[in-house]
Amino acid sequence: MSIKLYNTLTKEIELFKPIKRGEVKIYSCGPTVYNYAHIGNLRAFLCADLLQRTLKVVDGYKITWVMNITDIDDKTIKNISDETQWKPQMGVRSNDIIENLKNFTSYYKDEFHKDIRLLGLSMSHFHDFPRATDFIEEMKSLIVLIANNGFAYESGGSVYFNVGKWKDTDKYGKLKNLDFDNFRSGERVDSDEYEREQVSDFVLWKAKKEGEPSWEFEFEGKTLIGRPGWHLECSVMEKEILGLPFDIHTGGIDLQFPHHEDEIAQSKAGYGKEPTNYWFHNEFLQVEGQKMSKSARNFYTLRDLIDKGLDPIDVRFAMLSAHYRSKYNFTFDDVEAASKSRKRIQRYVYELISNNVGHDYVDVTLFSEKFFNHLKNDLHTPKALGELFTFINKNAAIVMGRNTRDEMLEFFKEFNEIFGILSFEMPDEDIPEEITMLATKRIEAKKSKNYDLADMLRIEINNRGYVIKDTAEGFEIEKL
RNA sequence: GGUGCCGUGGCCGAGUGGUUAGGCAGAGGUCUGCAAAACCUUGUACGGCGGUUCGAAUCCGUUCGGCACCUCCA
C-alpha cells in the first residue's frame, strides 16, 4: 500500500507492491549453524525482523516469514571433524557422520533460537526454519532441471553451473555491477581440486572428500557421491516453502555476490523463474570502527555481550536506532546511550499510564502519522526516533489529559509491535522487607535531621541493589 | 587492479541550496539537607582545496582519508 523499500535489483527506493493483495512472503538467509551467531549475523536477522514487523503493523499485511538454517557447508563439516568442537549437549559422537552433523547443527540451531529470542525476535512470527539437509532430494532435482536446460556440467565428480553460457541467456550481475573481466588479478587463488571450465562457474554438487558427509546422486548415468553446493539450498527451499516468485528476500550485503546472484541464476535456469521481486540487503556491522574479526579481538556473540553486563534489549534498540542500509558501528558507549534513551521512553510510557493530573490535549494522530511515515520511507528508524524524542520533549506526559494519554498509549503499543522494547506493566517489584525497613529508618533519620545516618542507609540500600527516590509523600524504591 | 559506499559538533546520527533534527555525554538552573528522578536552558559541526550561486553541509571539480565486495563470510 504505502511502504517504500530500497530494492537491490533496481538500486532504487520503490513503492512496495505485494504479489498477492494483503500478503507478503519473505525469505531470509539465515545462519550457518557451525558456531554461536555473532552480533553481525544477528543484525541481519534483526533488520529482517524490523522489515516484517513494519509491513505487518504499518500496512496490515499478513506475513509469511521463512528463515533457512544452513546445516551443511565447509564450516559445519570442518567443525564436526574436529573433536574439540564437540560438546556434551550435542549427544554422543558416533561413527555415522551424517548423524553427527545433525546433532552438531541441532545444538547450534537451538542456541541460535535462544539468541534471537533474547534479541526480541518472536518465534511466533516465523512460518518455518527449513534445514538444508532436509531438502537434499529437491536440490538434486533442481540440478537435473538446470542440466536439462543446458546450464550444468559434470566434471571430476562435481556438477557446475555454466556461468559463461548463462550470460548469453540472461544478465549475470543483477544485484551488483561486477567487472568479470577484471577480477583481482594475481590473487585469484583457485585452490579447489575441482575442475571447473571457468573460474566464474560455481558448484551445484560438490564431490565428496575423505571424511565428509555425503549423499548419492544419480546424474547422467553416473553415481556422484557428494553434497549440495551452498547457493543451491536457498533456491530450493524458498521454492518448496513459499513458491516462486515470492515478495522479499533478505540477507547481509555480503551475500549480494556471489550467493544471491547465483541463486537468481540457478532458479531461473532451473525453474524458469527468478526467486523474488525485492532484494533487501542490510549493511555490515562494525565494532569500534573496525571490521569485526577474531584476530582484531573485537568479535562478539550476544552471550559475550550479556557476560559483559549488557541487556540484549538495549542491543536491540541500539541496532534499530541505525538505518539498516548504513554501517552500524557497534560500541559499548553507543549501547549505553541507547539504553538510557530507551529507558527515557519507558519512563514516559509509565507516566502516561499512572498520572492523571493533566488536562492538555495534544494532536497524537498528527505525530503518529509523521512517525510511521518515516518508517514507511525505507524503514527510516533514525528519523522516526528523532521525531519521537522531539515529541516527548515538547509534550510532557504529566500535563496530558486522559484522552490524550490513551491515544499516546495506543501509539506506543503500535510502536512497540515494531520496536519491541517497551513494557506496559507498571514494574511491580517485590521489594524485600529488609530494604523497606532500611528505607523507613532512613526517612526517620532524615526527619530527625540525622543526615549522616540517612546517607549511610541510602548507600547500604544501593549496595543491596536498590535505589531510593524521595517523593513528596515519602519515598519510592526501585530495583537497580 | 576492478566495482561501489561513506567522511556532519566529545561520541552516535538526521539533513541534498536559504529555516532548531534527534539521542548520549558535558555545562547552568528548578526541586532536594545532600542525592536520585523529572523538568527548563545551553551546541560558532559539516575532511582539505578550488568552482557555480545573492546564498553550499547540501551542486560541480579535485584531493586526502575510511570502509565494503571481487566466488568462505550476515
Question: Could you characterize what this model shows?
Answer:
The chain is an alpha/beta fold and 480 residues long. Helix content is 44%, strand content 16%. It folds into three domains: 4-179 and 194-282, 3-Layer(aba) Sandwich (Rossmann fold), CATH 3.40.50; 287-419, Orthogonal Bundle (Isoleucyl-tRNA Synthetase, Domain 1), CATH 1.10.730; 433-479. The protein has helices at residues 39-59, 74-80, 97-118, 136-148, 163-169, 230-241, 256-271, 302-307, 312-320, 332-354, 364-376, 381-394, 402-419, 433-447, 451-463, and strands at residues 4-7, 12-15, 23-28, 62-67, 152-155, 158-161, 202-207, 215-219, 222-228, 246-252, 276-282, 285-287, 290-291, 328-330, 466-470, 475-479. The strands form five sheets. A five-stranded antiparallel β-sheet has the order 5-6-7-9-8. A hairpin with a 2-residue loop joins strand 5 and strand 6 (158-161). The longest helix has 23 residues, at 332-354. The protein is elongated. It binds one RNA strand of 74 nucleotides through helix 1, helix 7, strand 13, helix 10 and helix 12.
